[in-house]
């Protein structure tokens, strides 16, 4: 355990030294590259205004997303009603989607257990 702590400390020191040497150059490059996204003046009021714009823009998009959800649901209902006309490609896409959902569930379970496969911690 002590050796892992020593390794972690060494890696943190190495990362810190790298940031001291290259951090400001990286910061300047990042700001220059993304200059079009920066609002002037960079004040608290500007940030609050942008935050409000984002919130209310997302709020106004709810009806559009609500309608899209119901269209998708109607499409799924149509597929279930006419499943005898279902193509193998559609069935494959549905199976892959279900598999992906299951994989994300399993990944979440593993993360929730602290990245252990069995739940046992040594």
From TrEMBL:
What is the first-listed, main subcellular location in coarse terms? mitochondrion
UniProt-listed InterPro entries: ATP_synth_F0_gsu_mt
Q: Where found, per UniProt? A: Mitochondrion membrane
Q: Name one GO cellular component term.
A: mitochondrial membrane
**Keywords, sorted A to Z:** ATP synthesis, CF(0), Hydrogen ion transport, Ion transport, Membrane, Mitochondrion, Transport
Q: Name one GO biological process term.
A: ATP biosynthetic process
> Record's Pfam families?
ATP-synt_G
Instruction: Describe the family membership recorded for this protein in Swiss-Prot or TrEMBL.
Output: Belongs to the ATPase g subunit family.
Return the protein name: Mitochondrial ATP synthase subunit G protein
> What is the organism field in this record?
Forsythia ovata
